[in-house]
Design brief:
Elements: H1 2-7, H2 9-19, E1 25-28, H3 35-51, E2 55-58, H4 76-79, E3 81-82, H5 90-116, H6 124-127, H7 134-137, E4 161-162, H8 164-178, E5 185-189, H9 213-221, E6 225-228, E7 244-246, H10 253-259, E8 262-265, H11 269-276, E9 281-286, E10 300-303, E11 305-308, E12 311-312, H12 315-319, E13 335-338, H13 342-358, H14 365-383, H15 397-406, E14 410-411, H16 413-419
Parallel strand pairs: 1-2, 5-6, 5-8, 6-7, 8-9, 9-10, 10-14
Antiparallel strand pairs: 3-4, 11-12, 11-13
């Protein structure tokens, strides 16, 4: 491991520069292979760079992709985002890109050789660089010795968008291809069992797209064009309409999310891009209280119905379960989930659109109470030193805490009124 760290010297220097008050830039290498994690990393780095009054430099790992067995999830996230940078130091970015990619070659070769021979379990920050991210989102060192109340939330969001040139270029192609004249676009993304062919693995993460048809029909009546994101492997939907577009590739995803009126989806990559662009976001069919909870003030969420030992439980009962029941990395054998019904998705959509039309996102008393209870439960996970508390072993513990203190959205009122009972 010592030799590997020496190979990581460029990354170490970049992280030192990020901390320096005399270096005017914040360097970040988002994970390149997963669009959701990439979007979250850019969001975090953008918040921190703005707070530090530094200009963000997003570095793309892209060298020898086939040879080194990886791929770039979406080039627009690395090449075409506008952070409002005034200096936009292209020379520095080019130099850093060359150096970090060269460093990556040696580290990646080590990783691939290890996977074929020693098969040591290497952390993800070795497999792919996490410059500008690891120290703030994945560093649990001495975390549980700290005062919970002194752990800071992530800084306030700073504007990021697709640059105007790329946005206009995509608009011309998309409008011409689909004959679009209405700019009221709603993006829809539903993670299903075709995604990563995981129909038998953690099925609670998936949902049925046909259950969204009543909501789609409602939005079309409201004069929206609904665009379903996804690739050619996704499940077919039993619905067609001139104002419903079902995409089968990802080349327009960033443009569409950047320019949509709002986003409706499930816990999957495109949701994080919507959060990154601060688009009003309605997340449905959610299985965990702590992953993907609404980040921004206008965002809303509804949860799947939890079933513990074959008995349906309320939201407050689900909330009070140990952390292992909220951890997507663990198999929850005695906890199952019932998907949102078509009517629940429709009701959530109606409530969400009503908020948008009235431009009123103030939280109700019950929404505030649920959010307060959620934060208190996170603190209890932190304070619980028992050996069976899996939160203390989770690699993202600090990230969960910081997001829980940052989140500004809420659960939809109608679902809280049915499913949330105060003790």
């Amino acid at each position: 491991m010592i030799k590997l760290i020496r190979l990581d010297m460029i990354s170490l220097i970049c992280n030192k520069l990020n901390k320096s008050n005399f270096f005017n830039y914040y360097i970040v290498t988002p994970w390149i292979y997963a669009i959701g994690t990439c979007g979250e990393h850019i969001d975090i780095a953008n918040r921190i760079s703005s707070f530090k009054k530094k200009e963000i430099i997003v570095i793309k790992i892209s060298i020898f992709q086939k040879l080194l067995n990886y791929h770039v999830c979406n080039h627009d996230l690395f090449d075409n985002l506008d952070f409002g940078n005034k200096k936009n130091n292209k020379i520095l970015k080019t130099i850093l890109t060359i150096l970090i990619n060269l460093e990556f070659i040696f580290i990646r070769i080590f990783v691939l050789l290890n996977d074929k021979t020693l098969n040591l379990k290497l952390p993800e920050y070795i497999r792919f660089p996490q410059i500008g991210i690891k120290e703030v989102a994945y560093n649990n060192k001495d975390l549980f010795k700290k005062d919970f109340n002194k752990i800071k939330p992530y800084p306030n969001h700073s504007t990021v968008k697709l640059n105007s040139f790329k946005s206009e270029q995509n608009k011309r192609i998309f409008d011409k291809t689909f004959n679009i004249t209405n700019n009221k676009i709603v993006c829809l993304h539903v993670r299903d069992s075709k995604y990563r062919s995981d129909s038998k693995k953690r099925t609670y993460r998936n949902s049925k797209v046909d259950t969204y048809i009543p909501a789609i029909e409602y939005l079309i009546k409201k004069n929206y064009v609904v665009v379903r994101l996804g690739d050619k492997k996704k499940e077919k939907i039993n619905f067609s309409h001139q104002n419903f577009i079902d995409l089968y590739d990802n080349k327009h995803d960033i443009y569409l999310i950047n320019n949509c009126s709002f986003f409706i989806g499930t816990l999957s990559g495109p949701m994080d891009i919507s959060y990154l662009f601060q688009k009003p976001t309605l997340t449905t069919n959610v299985h965990s209280m702590y992953i993907g909870f609404p980040r921004n003030f206008k965002d809303r969420i509804i949860f799947k119905k939890a079933v513990l030992n074959n008995k349906e439980i309320l939201l407050n009962e689900h909330l009070d379960l140990p952390f292992s029941y909220h951890n997507y990395l663990e198999q929850m054998k005695d906890l199952n989930f019932i998907d949102n019904t078509p009517n629940e998705i429709l009701e959530a959509t109606k409530e969400f659109v009503n908020n948008l039309e009235k431009n009123n996102f103030d939280k109700t008393i019950i929404q505030k109470k649920f959010n307060d209870r959620l934060k208190k439960k996170m603190q209890s996970f932190f304070s619980d030193n028992s050996s069976d508390n899996s939160f203390h072993k989770h690699p993202l513990a600090i990230n969960f805490i910081r997001w829980s203190k940052t989140q500004q959205g809420a659960v939809c009122n109608f679902i809280l009124n049915k499913e949330f009972k105060e003790n």
